[in-house]
């Protein structure tokens, strides 16, 4: 029987935000490299364009992070609302079950049975 340490459990959880950011940065750098290799511009034009892109990169990354955080917060809020709604439904169902059980217990104790279509 194999024993697993805490470090083994870490790999079972899947990649985290660090892996996602690393992939994002790697993708951006790869895109820049492909763009430079396939660009039909002169060296000076390409360097100017690359300099402009490098200056805009922090702003773009900041916007992406902000958008991601907004999306995350919206998702969390939505899930909270869904959980509250489902909790309320379960509480109502439990209360209805308790009420039905109490009525049935009372009927059994009195020895009378009321059919669903009859009124008391």
By DSSP, the count of extended strands is 0
| Total discrete domains | 1
Q: Percent range for helical residues?
A: over 70%
Span from first to last CA?
A: 65 Å
> Structural class of the secondary structure composition?
mainly alpha
Q: Please give the radius of gyration in angstroms.
A: 31 Å
Low-confidence stretches: none
**Largest sheet, described in full?**
none
Strand content: under 5%
Number of helices: 3
Order of helices and strands: HHH
Shape: rod-shaped
The overall pLDDT average reads 81
Structural commentary:
This protein is an all-alpha fold and 120 residues long. The protein has helices at residues 6-12, 17-38, 43-110. The chain has one domain. The longest helix is centred in the middle third of the chain and has 68 residues, at 43-110. 81% of the residues lie in helices and 0% in strands.
Topology:
Layout: H1 6-12, H2 17-38, H3 43-110
Comma- or semicolon-separated keywords:
120 residues; mainly alpha; 3 helices
Short description:
This protein is an all-alpha fold. The protein has helices at 6-12, 17-38, 43-110. It has one domain.
